[in-house]
Structure formats: structure tokens, C-alpha cells
Design brief:
The protein contains 20 helices and ten strands. Helices cover 50% and strands 12% of the residues.
Length: 498
């Protein structure tokens, strides 16, 4: 494919200057309009070494207000980045609404440089392609403008540019040994780039091939494509909102025909206090040991807690962490998103909190708010919460493929038990802060939440990130089940590692 590109194209200087005189102020205006409309933009520059990515980024930002963009040079992973899932460093670099992020190289390094250098096997390459496609689809579904440019030059041109750089002490550092190796084996590296383009050239994130031998031609083409993309995004933003098409019902309207997981839960399961104390002491001691082993083996652990209000999430998390080294875990309480979080993709704040290798992240409420409270309270559209099942499964798959143990707990109680706990909180001055008017209002929508929870459990319980339903009417039983489940999962994983 790439060998068919006509790299002889050139741009006359007079024509270039005339066109750029029009395009530069237009791009500046479009940046301001995108900021006003809160449209986030990501611009990716990939291509061969010495193809001019840095020069083209510099040319593009010349027309932009520097307060509204960030340039990310993506090189080899830092030690911190190596200890997180691969896409973590890119999720944490997403622009907020109204800003532009430009990437000199990107998430494609894994299927290009790392693959060529033999740093990852073909199985990891396949996983990376799947993750990249999911990542870009999630971003664009969420309103991101994503532009991808591949700067193309041939082997001869690249070798000439490398020589020019190496001839000067001031620029020789820009050519690495790996760059020269890729030039020597240009055809093999070209095949990898072609495969990357073919496999990730999608309707939601297409590739733009830039003939980069002539700098002026490349600059003008990039400007035109960016201007057209932003104009199109602004037209979409200004158009009347499309009415949502009727979507297939996820559950039958007849309640007797609906799939149900919660209805099978035995809430009579209980445990006496004496048994609870003995098991608690034993399991906490074992968890303390396992925490140390997980750290030494560099296994990340993600534990998510959801459940009814007063379902026992806090009590379970407290017993889970009591004997663990506080330097090795973080409990993330999830509240309504703040202004900064709302200005990003809804998964952004959770990706930022994912643990590095050997650490444990515990979430008191999670990303599943998208398919529960946001769905029921109308904080997102039907399309948004329906596609969230796929997006969440993909995120958890990425975590698992990067070695994380992922467990999700649903703390189940019945409506009468919840009422008893609400009343007890109201009567206890030390616990009154735990009960709010919103908790009482949510009880009025119990059936709606129950339907949403059943669907969530069925659609997002996977082999790599299972849901564990915890029978919670008896707090003692619930806490022990959570502890035992975590201990069993960590022991199983450590056994696989040995």
C-alpha cells in the first residue's frame, strides 16, 4: 500500500504562502470556536523516523493559541508508566473539552517500535490492536475529534535525512541506533506500518497519509485536513440534536419474563459473632501475607464495590484493609463527577486511579454508575448507557490482559433491611452523616434500580472480571464472604505465577 503513494508531490512556494495566509487565521478561529463549544480534539502524528513529525507539529501550532493546546512527545515508557496498564499513560493525557492535544508518536508505538524491536510477542500485538480500536471508538463515541496523520517518506529519503542529522553534533542525538536499524530493514518495518494502518483505519478514526518528502506540501495538506475536521465537528455541534432512534429493549416489559440474578440470592445466609471473629482474624492475617506477595510479584489488583445504599460497602472495605500495608493500597470513594471530571470522558477519572503493578486500588462505587444512577436519573442518553456495557467490558479486559486481578462486589440487601439500617443511622448521632434525602428518594425507585442492576450483572460479569454477589442482610456473613473471595482470588493468581 505505502509503496504506491506518490512521494514526488511538491508545493510551489508562492501558492503555499498564499494558501497558508488564509488557513492560519482560520485555524485560530476554529480553535476558539471549539473551545466555546467544548469540543475536545486529539491530533496524532505517526510516521517514519526523520519524516518531519516535529516540524509539522511546530508548523501547526503556529496558528494556535498556546493556552489551548498541549503537545505530548511519546517516547519509551518511563518506569512509572511501565508499572501501569499500557493505555493508562494515554488515558491520563486526554484533553478536556475545548482543548487540543497533539501527540508526537502515540499508542501505536506498541504495534510498531516495540513489535519491530522484539519487545513484545505476537499475542501482545493482537491484544494491543484490540485495545487501540476500543480506545479510539470510546473516545470518538464520547465526542472526541480524533485526527491521525501518517507521514510517509521512502527508504532513500530517510537515509539522506539521517545522514544530514548525523553530520552535525547539534542534531546527531536525534538519530538512535533503533532508527538506523529500521532504515536497514525498511521493508519489514514498512509492512508493520501498513498492517497498522489497514487494521486501524476506521470510519470513526481514519488514517490520513501525508506525502512528507516536500515539507510545504505536507504542511498544507495537514492544515487543510485539520481545518475541515474542525469545521465538520462544529457543524455537528451546531446542528439540532438528532432524536434517538427506538432501541431494542434490554429486558422485556413483562416483569415475569425478565432475566434476574438478584431474585436468586439467599438473604437468609448468616453467621454468628463468634464464628465471624475467628474467621475475620484468620482471613485478615492471610490477606496481610498475600498483600506482600502480590507486591513482590508486581501483580496489580482492582476491587470494585457497588450495592444498595446502606448495603455494607464501607464496612466490608474497612475489614478488608485493616491489616493491609496502607502504602500499598488506595481506597477511591466515587462521588458525582466534579467540573474537571465532567469535562473528560466518563472513564477518564477511573483510569487515572488504576493501580500500578503490585498495588491495590479499591473503589467505593465505580464506573458502573453509568449504567445505574446515570441511566435512571437521565444524566446520560440511552445510547450512552447502552454502549457503556461494551466500553466497561473493554476497559476491564485491558486491565486483565495487563496482569491485573479484577473483582467486583455487589452488596445485596432487601428493602426491609435497608429501611432498618436507614432508621438506625438517623437515630445514631455518629452515623447521621451517612443518611441523606437522596438515599430516601432512591428507595422510591427500587424496582428501576433492581432492573438496571440485574442487566448490569448479566452483561458485565466476565471470566476476567467477575461479579460477586454478596448476601448482605447479615453484615458478618457479607464481610467474611468478601474477604474469602479476595483471598481465594489472590491465592489462585499467585499459584499461576509460580
Amino acid at each position: 500500500m505505502l509503496e504506491k503513494i506518490d512521494l514526488t508531490k511538491k508545493m510551489d512556494k508562492d501558492i503555499f504562502d498564499r494558501r497558508m495566509k488564509e488557513l492560519e487565521p482560520k485555524l485560530g478561529r476554529l480553535q476558539r470556536e471549539c473551545r466555546e463549544r467544548k469540543i475536545p480534539v486529539m491530533i496524532v502524528f505517526e510516521g517514519y523516523g526523520a519524516s518531519g513529525k516535529g516540524a509539522q507539529i511546530a508548523a501547526l501550532i503556529h496558528a494556535l493559541d498556546p493556552r489551548g493546546f498541549t503537545v505530548y512527545p511519546v517516547k519509551n515508557e518511563t518506569e512509572e508508566e511501565k508499572m501501569h496498564p499500557y493505555l493508562w499513560r494515554f488515558w491520563t493525557k486526554l484533553p478536556e473539552q475545548g482543548r487540543i492535544a497533539l501527540y508526537d508518536s502515540s499508542w501505536y508505538r506498541r504495534v510498531l517500535n516495540d513489535r519491530f524491536d522484539g519487545k513484545i510477542g505476537e499475542a501482545k500485538v493482537e491484544e494491543a490492536f484490540d485495545s487501540i480500536l476500543s480506545f479510539e471508538r470510546q473516545l470518538t463515541d464520547g465526542g472526541m475529534v480524533l485526527l491521525k496523520f501518517f507521514l510517509d517518506i521512502d527508504k532513500k529519503e530517510q537515509k539522506k535525512r539521517f545522514k544530514k542529522l548525523l553530520d552535525s553534533e547539534d542534531t546527531a542525538w536525534r538519530v538512535s541506533r533503533q532508527d538506523l536499524e529500521r532504515n536497514e530493514d525498511f521493508e519489514r518495518y514498512q509492512e508493520m506500518n501498513e498492517e497498522m494502518i489497514l487494521r486501524t483505519d476506521t470510519d470513526y478514526a481514519p488514517w490520513n497519509i501525508i506525502e512528507a518528502v516536500d515539507r510545504r506540501f505536507a504542511t498544507l495538506k495537514i492544515y487543510v485536513l485539520v481545518v475541515e475536521a474542525l469545521e465538520q465537528a462544529l457543524r455537528r455541534a451546531g446542528a439540532p440534536a438528532e432524536e434517538e432512534e427506538p432501541v431494542p429493549l434490554h429486558t422485556p416489559s413483562d416483569a415475569s419474563l425478565q432475566e434476574s440474578t438478584l431474585s436468586k440470592v439467599d438473604l437468609t445466609l448468616s453467621m454468628d459473632k463468634e464464628t465471624y471473629k475467628k474467621k475475620l482474624k484468620k482471613l485478615q492475617a492471610r490477606l496481610e501475607e498475600l498483600h506482600g506477595e502480590v507486591y513482590r510479584k508486581r501483580i496489580p489488583v482492582v476491587l470494585g464495590f457497588e450495592g444498595w445504599d446502606a448495603g455494607g460497602k464501607g464496612g466490608a472495605i474497612k475489614r478488608l484493609t485493616e491489616r493491609m500495608d496502607p502504602r500499598g493500597y488506595v481506597v477511591n470513594p466515587t462521588a458525582s463527577p466534579n467540573d474537571i471530571e465532567r469535562a473528560h470522558h466518563y472513564l477518564w477519572r477511573f483510569w487515572r486511579a488504576m493501580p500500578k503493578a503490585g498495588h491495590i486500588a479499591i473503589f467505593d462505587r465505580t464506573w458502573y454508575g453509568r449504567v445505574m444512577v446515570e441511566r435512571i436519573e437521565g444524566f446520560c442518553t440511552t445510547r450512552e448507557w447502552q454502549r457503556a456495557y461494551r466500553e466497561i467490558n473493554e476497559m476491564e479486559r485491558d486491565l486483565a490482559q495487563e496482569g491485573a486481578v479484577v473483582l467486583k462486589f455487589w452488596m445485596q440487601i432487601d428493602k426491609d433491611e435497608q429501611a432498618r439500617r436507614f432508621k438506625a443511622r438517623q437515630e445514631n448521632p455518629d452515623k447521621q452523616w451517612k443518611i441523606t434525602e437522596e438515599d430516601w428518594r432512591n428507595r422510591e425507585k427500587w424496582e428501576q434500580y433492581e432492573e438496571a442492576v440485574n442487566e448490569m450483572l448479566i452483561r458485565t460479569s466476565t471470566s476476567y472480571a467477575p461479579w460477586v454477589i454478596v448476601e448482605g442482610n447479615c453484615k458478618y456473613y457479607a464481610r467474611i464472604k468478601v474477604l474469602q473471595t479476595v483471598v481465594d482470588a489472590l491465592e489462585k493468581r499467585l499459584k499461576e505465577e509460580s
